[in-house]
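A.,

Following up on our hallway conversation. Structure tokens first:
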């Protein structure tokens, strides 16, 4: 089955960067192993958004883990969605939780967690964590592997 037959509009085609998260098209693909609990991890170590107060850029290391049910999030559409935050003004908590909720609405996973490890703003890092559901029994979930902010020390 081709990408277009699967209803995918971005995979295998040139795709413009959406100007904001609301314009971004997140797409899903069928889970090839819906009978198996396994963790899929997406990591974006150079996530960027805009502070809604100062209009200065904010940077984060995002780690998204989920156990799929019937659907997976298509990775190119996820990348374009995350990149669309570059011009979006929102606080760290809003960006992190909104991303998690939008993916949950799209793929209805058995479990999902997102860790937003934000670099310091005003001298203080802000880390944001959100989870949907419970980890299915017997599922191996590795640590997200991002060290707490330690400055120069």
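Then the amino acids I'd put at each of the 153 positions:
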């Amino acid at each position: 089955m081709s990408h277009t037959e699967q209803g995918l509009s971005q995979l295998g085609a040139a795709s413009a960067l959406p100007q904001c998260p609301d314009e971004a098209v997140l797409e899903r693909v069928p889970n090839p192993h819906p009978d198996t609990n396994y963790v899929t991890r997406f990591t974006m170590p150079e996530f960027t958004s805009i502070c809604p107060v100062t209009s200065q850029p904010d940077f984060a290391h995002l780690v998204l883990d989920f156990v799929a049910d019937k659907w997976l999030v298509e990775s190119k559409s996820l990348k374009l969605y995350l990149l669309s935050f570059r011009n979006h003004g929102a606080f760290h908590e809003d960006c992190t939780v909104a991303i998690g909720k939008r993916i949950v609405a799209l793929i209805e996973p058995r479990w999902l967690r997102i860790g937003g490890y934000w670099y310091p703003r005003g001298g203080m890092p802000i880390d944001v964590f959100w989870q949907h559901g419970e980890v299915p029994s017997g599922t191996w979930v590795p640590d997200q592997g991002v060290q707490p902010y330690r400055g120069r020390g």
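The longest strand covers residues 39-50. Curious whether your intuition agrees with the design.

B.
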